[in-house]
UniProtKB/TrEMBL annotation:
Origin organism lineage: Eukaryota, Metazoa, Ecdysozoa, Arthropoda, Hexapoda
InterPro entries: CMC4, Cys_alpha_HP_mot_SF
Species in which this protein is naturally found: Drosophila melanogaster
Chief place of localization: mitochondrion
Gene of this entry: CG9865(uORF1)
Keywords: Disulfide bond, Mitochondrion
Entry protein name: GH02741p1
One Pfam short name: CMC4
Length: 76
């Protein structure tokens, strides 16, 4: 019966496709949408087929990666 349930991360996957299409496949223009997908997959990766291939360790938001950057250099 699990095939009748909706994939909890499918709306995020659709948002990624829409954002990438709108922005000519420039991933840097869709970082917030990509991060929302990662967050969904952190919660639902066992139930969501859309999460296959998502790197749960990779953050997409620059602010989050700055926190992990010990050099103190700005990413800009």
């Amino acid at each position: 019966m699990s095939d009748t349930r909706k994939d909890p991360c499918k709306p995020n996957a659709c948002r990624i496709q829409a954002c990438l299409t709108k922005n000519h496949y420039q991933e840097d223009k869709c970082l917030d949408v990509l991060e929302a997908m990662r967050q969904c997959c952190l919660k639902w990766h066992k139930e969501s087929l859309c999460c296959s291939g998502i790197d749960l360790e990779k953050t997409y938001l620059p602010d989050a990666s700055k926190e992990k950057n010990a050099t103190g250099k700005s990413n800009k």
